[in-house]
Amino acid sequence: MIDIVYDVRRYRQKLADTIREGDNVVELGPHIGKSTEAYYNRVSRAVLVDKGIDCKEALEEFCKIHDKATFICGDVRKFDTMSDAVKKIKRCDVLALDMGGGRFPDTVFKVWATWSAILKPRDSIIRCRGLAEFIFRARVTDDTIKEDFDDAGWLADYGRSTPDKVKEQLEEFSIWVDI
């Protein structure tokens, strides 16, 4: 399942409601760890990835206190950051993505699509106002697109289950953003 929210309180509640006992979680954009606190007591492993200088110290401290958490200081759009995260987690049950909840969904969607293609999470939770607004304004008028999907929270039906050139996909970000 893929859940999209904007309000940070609802995002945290969705994390708390979705994450099950023993889950492995990858959280992209945990900031200072307030959202992580909503679910941490139930996880087997939590990998927290953020590039913010303002949150580095708080997340390092969080991981010192919480032994099931690992912090990676890095840009989620970079191949090396993803590679580091994949090495630290054997499987991902929940992929959580909070890149500030901004109005422009293109980078958020691309980050989610790339990470979910590799990690194949059971559930994804995305906090992004622009993506939520896009979905509410959209109407699917192509009846060849099915409404039910076999995968849980990633785009397997679209040939994304094992991308051959993940690094090239991530380098494509440079078209949209300065990385």
Number of strands: 6
**Count of runs of 4 or more consecutive helical residues:** 7
Elements, N to C (H/E): EHEHEHEHEHEHH
Shape: globular
Domain module tally: 1
Percent of residues in helices comes to 25-40%
Kindly provide the radius of gyration, computed on alpha-carbon positions and rounded to a whole number of angstroms: 16 Å
- Briefly, what CATH class? Alpha Beta
Average pLDDT rating? 83
Query: Which CATH architecture?
Result: 3-Layer(aba) Sandwich
Largest sheet: 6 strands, parallel
SS strand fraction: 15-25%
Spatial gap, N to C terminus: 30 Å
Write up what this structure looks like.
The protein has a single domain, classed as Rossmann fold, CATH 3.40.50. 37% of the residues lie in helices and 21% in strands. The chain has 7 helices and 6 strands. Strands 1-6-5-2-3-4 form a 6-stranded parallel beta sheet, with helices on both faces.
